[in-house]
Design a protein that fits this description.
Rossmann fold, six-stranded parallel beta sheet
């Protein structure tokens, strides 16, 4: 699979490593060159410095042939905007966005953007630990 990840923070870097190690063609984008240092030295994918909302960067990343686009920057609005571009302009079949605000995550799911809210996931896990 051809996968593009926007955001090379802890989550993005770990996801890129895991997907690349599983044999996928992974490109990860971040605006900050320093962020790409989070990738392991043996990362087999492509690390690209650029704005994941910009056409030039997305085309360079190969979005026209991407199977999956994942947005996991710290900004909910930025993540959803990038996913909308990937979905509606480039027709990427699978779109996933990290959205911290659970209310927004639910709203975006209603717009056809698969979203994961770490806030909800962690709260549910903690609840399970408490309840045993």
């Amino acid at each position: 699979m051809k996968i593009i990840i926007m955001g090379c923070g802890r989550v993005g870097a770990r996801l890129a490593e895991a997907l690349s190690s599983a044999g996928n063609d992974v490109t990860i984008i971040d605006t900050e060159p320093f962020a790409l240092r989070k990738l392991p030295e043996d990362f087999k994918g492509t690390a690209l410095v650029g704005n994941g909302l910009a056409e030039e960067t997305l085309v360079k990343a190969g979005i026209e042939s991407a199977d999956v686009f994942v947005s996991c920057t710290p900004g909910d609005n930025r993540n959803v905007m990038a996913c909308q571009i990937a979905k509606h302009i480039y027709n990427v079949p699978k779109i996933v966005s990290r959205v911290y605000d659970p209310i927004r995550a639910e709203m975006y799911r209603g717009l056809g953007i698969e979203s994961v809210s770490p806030t909800t996931v962690i709260a549910d896990l903690l609840k399970q630990k408490i309840e045993g």
